[in-house]
Amino acid sequence: RKVDMLLDLEAILDKTEGFSGADIFEIIRRTLEAKVREEISGKIPDLVTADDILRTINSYEGRP
Questions:
Q1: Which domain holds residue 36?
Q2: Domain count of the fold of the chain
Q3: Considering the domain boundaries, does residue 2 fall inside one?
Q4: Is 1 within the bounds of a domain?
Q5: C-alpha distances in angstroms, 2 versus 36, 38, 47, 51?
Q6: Which of 20, 33, 35, 56 is 20 to 30 Å from the Cα of 46, by its Cα?
Q7: Alpha helices, DSSP H only, in 1-64?
Q8: CA 19 to CA 12: how far, in whole Å?
Q9: At 62, is the secondary structure helix, strand, or coil?
Q10: 19 vs 25, 26, 38, 39, CA distance in Å?
Q11: Of 20, 22, 46, residue with least CA distance to 32
Q12: What is the predicted pLDDT for the residue at 64?
């Protein structure tokens, strides 16, 4: 998947403070999986954005 190189890394870093490497890996995996599901459903997926990642972070049940 392609990633928007203009990601708001500060927002992502703020939201992932205290997360383990495994948590962050899982968040990215889920974000990419959502893009694959979009593609399977017939949509042309956009680049992975900070909003995509933040949406996954907000729904992640492993939050510290």
A1: 9-59
A2: 1
A3: no
A4: no
A5: 12, 14, 5, 14
A6: 20
A7: 9-15, 21-40, 50-59
A8: 11
A9: coil
A10: 10, 11, 27, 29
A11: 46
A12: 59
Q: How far is CA 26 from CA 35, 48, 55, in A?
A: 14, 15, 13
Nearest to 54, CA basis, from 25, 13, 19, 23: 13
- Residue pair 23/60 in contact by the 8 Å Cβ criterion: yes
Q: How many other C-beta atoms lie within 10 A of the C-beta of residue 42?
A: 6
Residue among 7, 42, 64, 10 nearest 31 (CA): 7
Residuewise pLDDT in 10s, the chain (64 residues): 677 777 888 999 999 999 999 999 999 999 999 999 998 999 887 889 999 999 999 999 766 5
pTM value? 0.82
